[in-house]
Amino acid sequence: MRSLLILASVAAAFVPTPGAVASMNVVLLDNTSQYSHNNGGEFRAVADDGLSSIVNWGAYAPSTSGTISSGIDGSSWGYRSTLNGQQYFQTFCIEYSEEFYPGTSYSVGFSQNAMYGGQPTGGDPISIGTAWLYSQFASGNLNYPAPANNPSYVYDYTFGSGRSATAGDLQAAIWWLEDESHGVRNSLIDLVESVLGRNDTTIKDNANGAYGVYALNLGAPGAVQDQLVIVVPEASTVIAGVLLLIPLGISTVRIVRGNHHKSQK
Prior knowledge:
Strand content: 15-25%
Oligomer: single chain
């Protein structure tokens, strides 16, 4: 899906922080023995200073963010020693039919829409269900055990096969909520519908920036798979303002993104 980059050239006068208009880069790492599942997330998004300036790091728990090191990340697909010391957050893709290559550098922007995936060319807005599930995951609180909760679901945040399995559940639920191929209406859908008081139709309503969740739009239009991120309130305010100015001219941001090992996402 194509990225609607918020870097409108005229927006510079309205942007409160330099990070919102600076070049941004990210590298995506993939590790199916620790946190990734088959063709899907989790993925480890390694942010440069530009991207770090718009990420709401306070919305991420120690289990979903940290600093790259060779000891922990050396076996991950896309790792290189120059990434050591950089901050990362865990993410999921919101498109199935596009790909990325781990460790490759891409331009990046962020918006409320995934661009040119399995949806209309104008972009596919992130659903309210996806936004809630990702925000709960990011905060380390996707933990609703039975019998206190019905429906129930407990995400495994311990790196290893258990985490990879629950990552597969969450990735499949996100694809279902975004009307992407290989999506599955699983128990996570029951959970989010129960919590938000919605049904199979309204759980796919546009999130409109709820919970601070946005799409990271990677690379050339329709060429690279978009991911999820939680941005600082200042950045989301800028997006809202710039959207009113489109199509007055858009500039680009860069992202270092990795493609998972499988051919289709």
